[in-house]
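Could someone model succinic acid with this protein?
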Amino acid sequence: MQISPSGQACGAEVTGVDLTSPLADETVASIRTAWLEHHVLSFPNQAMSDDDLERFTLSFGDFGNDPFFDPIEGRRHIAAIRRDANETSPLFAENWHSDWSFQARPPAGTCLLGITIPPVGGDTLFANQHAALDAMPPDMRAEYDGLIAIHSAQMAYAPDGAYGDKDEGRSMAIRPDESARATQLHPLIREHPETGRLGLFSCMGYIIGFEGVAAEQALPLLQKLYAWQSRDEFVYRHQWQSEMLVMWDNRSVLHCATGGYAGHDRLLHRTTIAAHQG
Ligand code: SIN
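Reply:
Sure, complex below.
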């Protein structure tokens, strides 16, 4: 197996491994080590089926719990990230986020398999949140140390949210629901559960405030933090190919979709890897 770092803030390409066959335990361990180091791994030239995607995902943990999407037909744990060539609804996930950070046990990772990839655009951006914390000036960090973030899916998936009842003409099977208004607390600065490395967890969007901080103070704090977390020096820009599998660590990075492919279809299949129990 060869691991080639992107040379950007995170990300590495992995070759010399066949993900269409079951992986030996040592191979899974090597991939996990590389994943924890680089946070985003891409595996080009993997002609994977949905069975292969599920088996690969389960090599790293249980399936996560994916609310607000219908899975693809015949599967319980695969969602389609899809946009049709003629679609005019706002892009899906064009905001920085960590997948499902509003859950009590957010998924450790996400796997995304490129199926139909447009000839231009549609890159996914990843922002390294260990690097973002490490580089934060001490006076700025003092404003955020010790804060407990309030997470919620309400701005995205409540009936009056961005993907709610007024969101028409979308090809993705998004299912808004009142349950999106639930809230969950997580420390803003926290140790990665496997590496112990400190990082910033999630961002404005799924974070809607801070415990014990008035809304009018929380909003500017969140806006300033979002601008910091997504600075160019923390970002890796991932360019897709069809038959490419990408896995990322939601505990270490934020990610964000980009457009630039109007007139072209884009389709990827997605699973999430549950957090370790314990
Ligand atoms: C996602 O956030 O799950 C999708 C990212 C993308 O479409 O590039």
